[in-house]
Amino acid sequence: MTERKVTRDTDYKLIKVLYEKAFPKDEQIPWEDLMRLVEEMPLDFTAYYDGEDFIGFTIVYPRKSINWFWYFAVC
Hints:
alpha+beta; globular
């Protein structure tokens, strides 16, 4: 398994599709707002791959005493 940081420059088509399928609309941050937050906050947005196959992602807000998992999804 490999990990890749997700940024606004990432080819995130598969990540966005999983995000929109995995979470109810009322639990989603609009995608453009989420990508803006990734740039403005110390969020750890990571995509996971098995070889070249996308298998999931996590979005974590790391803090000194706790890591707050915002989203976690697998295909």
